[in-house]
Amino acid sequence: MTIKNKYKWTMYGIVIGAFFFWFSMRDIDTHSALESLRAAELIPAILVLPAGMLFMLIKAWRWSVILGPVAHVGMSTLHSAAYIGTAANLSIAHSGEILRAVLIGRRSRIATTAILASIGVERIFDFMVVVALFGVLLIIDPQLPEYVAIAGFVALFMVGAGLLTIAVLSVPSKVRYHLRLLVISLLPEKFLELNKNQLKRGLVGFSALSNPSIVVNIFLLSVLQWGCIIGAIWLCAYSAGYTLTISMAISVWTLMVIGLTLPSSPAQLGTTQLAFTLGLSMALHETQIPFAASVIYTVCLNLPYMLIGMICWIKVGKIDRRITSKKWSAEIDRRGKKAHQDSLTVPVEGKS
Q: Do 305 and 53 touch, CB atoms closer than 8 A?
């Protein structure tokens, strides 16, 4: 992503976020919303941070499972990269995926395209969980608001595309080979010449999908991971003075996940507020408490993610500089020794 594209994407996110923020606040009594924030319970708000940190830990664990068939990468490295990527996404939407792929690629023997493919696997399972919990919503409360139902069906469409990819990768090798030939035949020759090696390396990142037990583990970790965020949403609302039902918490989360597929403003301002106000509108006839809960979510989850990600980025930069310095020192020592050996070598003159 070039600097110009980053600027455009950021501006789109700010515009969309500003619109969402305005839309979520259009019927809010500002004084009542501030009173709800002043009266917020401190302990539930504090517990949002551990829930978010547990989410990041499980996210890194799930990523290690996805990358397991490709190569072993340390959990601490993946954990740090997950924070850095999340912080980048909270600054410039969808920039974190490329950033953490590059970071892991530099610290392992895995191609960056393969790591990007593993992140694509993450997204497939994220939307699979959305669809699964959307099904739970339909069982608990068949009379869902129209916008929640639309969000669920959008997730279903995305999962359909993801499951098609899984099916292609899971069928017997001969069929997979012929399907690959079919796809290749449809691509332009110039594209294939430039990207043939990258495509081969990228396919390695989908290796986890060929193992049914790994697929089940990834799905269970995905459910556990997003359960932490649903719990954080419940804690935010409880802190603001309202006890959510499971269906309401899932509704907010579903809208949040689907909303974040669009460009979003820094710290997901606007997207978070709209998800809370729309998701809770089916039970609450006022928006002050949902808005207050969304502010608690932003302050207690998104902002700490950005801070921790920045700290991890600084730490990674120091490690990189240290490694580079050691390499240069070793190179200088090698050249110095070679020069010293050359100076001690006396050329032998031939006899006349």
A: no
- State residue 284's pLDDT score: 72
Report d(CA 109, CA 75) in Å as an integer. 16
pLDDT along the chain (352 residues), means of 10: 62 83 80 85 96 97 94 92 94 88 86 87 89 79 69 71 61 60 59 56 77 93 96 95 88 86 84 89 78 94 96 84 62 62 57 43
DSSP category for residue 143: S
What lies within 8 Å, CB to CB, of 198 at 6+ separation is 111, 113
Q: Residue 122 has what pLDDT? A: 92
Helix pair 112-140, 246-259: axis angle to 10 deg: 140
* CB-CB neighbours of 73 under 10 Å: 20
Residue type, 290: P
Per-residue burial over 4-21, b if 16 or more Cβ lie within 10 Å, else e, is: eeeeebbeebbebbeebb
What's the alpha-carbon Rg for the chain, to the nearest Å?
A: 25
pLDDT in tens, 137-161: 777 776 666 667 677 677 777 767 6
User: Structure tokens of 248?
Assistant: 């309401």
Q: How many residues does the chain have?
A: 352
Q: Which position has the token pair 């850095």?
A: 84
Nearby residues of 99 by Cβ (< 8 Å), 6 or more positions away:
84, 85, 88
- Mean pLDDT (the chain) is 80
Fill in the amino acid letter for 104: I
Pinpoint the alpha helices (H) of the chain. Answer: 3-25, 30-38, 42-67, 75-91, 96-106, 112-140, 146-170, 173-186, 189-204, 212-239, 246-259, 271-280, 288-297, 303-344
Contact present, 103 and 84 (Cβ < 8 Å): yes
- How far, in Å, CA of 300 to CA of 296, rounded? 6
